[in-house]
TrEMBL record:
Keyword Membrane assigned: yes
GO CC annotation: membrane
Coiled coil regions in record: none
Principal subcellular localization: membrane
Listed GO biological process terms: toxin biosynthetic process
Localization in the cell: Membrane
Membrane-spanning parts: 6-27, 34-51, 71-93, 105-123
Protein name, as recorded: CvpA family protein
Provenance organism: Francisella adeliensis
Keywords: Membrane, Transmembrane, Transmembrane helix
């Protein structure tokens, strides 16, 4: 009960918006929500890998601050990946006649809830890099902000972990030519 009393306006907005959007998404069906969650994770991983390359090739010419340039390139790659991935998905699920029961709708709601909380994590992580936002009392007193920022930072830094893995160590030498 103490947690509920300590929620501020930002926390309530995040909870209500996530809940309402997830209710609408639950109607779309379980399979669509599962595939959208998987594709969203793939899009974030792709954005994490390509953002630094796009930043150094194009964005640094327009934006001098490296952190802002990285966030802009990450968001641009993420939006591009979303448009491509979800456009292709829309074609394949054009005539989805999936019959949903109560349990499938409940699981679809739960998966949509996870998906939209992940989106909020990316938004909060981005906003946390802006000093004017960090100093605001609503932002500082938020109960959900630390968890969402930590999750969003993990998604932004996923490129580092992926790029540290050298696949040549796992692929036979006759395949790599080395």
């Amino acid at each position: 009960m103490e947690f509920l009393q300590s929620l501020n306006i930002l926390d309530i907005f995040i909870i209500l918006s996530t809940f309402i959007i997830s209710l609408f998404a639950a109607v779309k069906g379980l399979m669509k929500n599962i595939i959208q969650l998987i594709l969203m994770i793939f899009a974030v991983a792709l954005a994490g890998i390509l953002a630094q390359k796009i930043q150094s090739a194009y964005i640094n010419n327009f934006i001098e601050d490296p952190n802002t340039a990285y966030i802009v390139s990450f968001i641009l790659v993420l939006l591009g990946a979303y448009l491509i991935i979800f456009g292709v998905m829309k074609v394949f699920f054009k005539k989805n006649e999936e019959k949903e029961g109560l349990s499938n709708t409940f699981f679809a709601f739960f998966i949509a809830l996870i998906r939209y909380l992940f989106v909020w994590a990316l938004i909060c992580s981005t906003l946390n890099s802006i000093d004017a936002v960090k100093e605001h009392s609503v932002w500082e007193n938020s109960q959900l902000r630390p968890i969402l920022v930590k999750t969003g930072n993990f998604a932004y830094n996923s490129k580092v972990k992926i790029q540290e893995t050298n696949l040549k160590d796992y692929v036979p030498k006759d395949v790599t030519g080395g």
